[in-house]
TrEMBL record:
SUPFAM superfamilies tied to this protein: Thioredoxin-like
Superkingdom, taxonomy of origin: Bacteria
Gene3D superfamilies, per database record: Glutaredoxin (3.40.30.10)
Domain Thioredoxin intervals: 37-171
Protein name in UniProt: Redoxin domain-containing protein
One MF term in the entry's GO annotations: antioxidant activity
Length: 171
């Protein structure tokens, strides 16, 4: 009699566990992912002017992995990191690079890019609205975003090319 009682309890717990698991799995789709700046959250969308006077929205880059980098021309660690970003741009067409310059004017940024022969995509965050949205407290700060717009990794400080590949989960 006691065994049937315990067996009944185990079966009820098993049914509850399976049902909970199924509901959790079904409810875990892209619309239910919280927007934020932490790993596993959906990256906040934004629209910024590019250095070439066009505009770009992060949401337009969906379907590809995105390397989102916050930087400035006067920042020594950013300057150290730039050749690695250019190498990533040159060797990985499947990665969308968006370098967001903070609080500098178009002429200053254009001159820096031309002087150093950098040709990756650069946006201007002159009001720091986007960097504030991403809680950037030091530069360079990089976000690694997957094809669905979800943050895979983030890093503050200069990165090597190899570390970029690792954080983008590229082999």
């Amino acid at each position: 009699m006691k065994n049937k009682y315990y067996l009944g309890i185990v079966l009820i717990l098993l049914i509850i566990s399976v049902t909970t698991g199924i509901l959790f799995y079904m409810g875990r789709n892209e619309e239910n992912i919280q927007v934020g700046t932490e790993i596993g959250e959906k990256a906040p969308d934004f629209t910024l002017p590019l250095i070439n006077n066009e505009e770009i929205s992060l949401s337009n880059l969906r379907g590809k992995k995105v390397f989102l980098n916050f930087w400035a021309t006067w920042c020594p660690p950013c300057q150290i990191e730039m050749p690695a970003i250019q190498k990533l741009n040159d060797h990985h067409d499947s990665i969308e690079i968006l370098a967001v310059d903070l609080r500098e004017n178009r002429d200053t940024v254009s001159e820096y890019l031309m002087k150093n022969s950098y040709n990756f995509r650069v946006a201007l965050d002159t009001s720091a609205e986007v960097s504030n949205k991403y809680l950037v407290r030091g530069i360079p700060t990089s976000y690694f975003i997957d094809e669905n717009g979800v943050i895979m990794n983030k890093h503050t400080g200069a990165l090597s090319y190899q570390k970029m590949l690792e954080l983008l989960r590229i082999e």
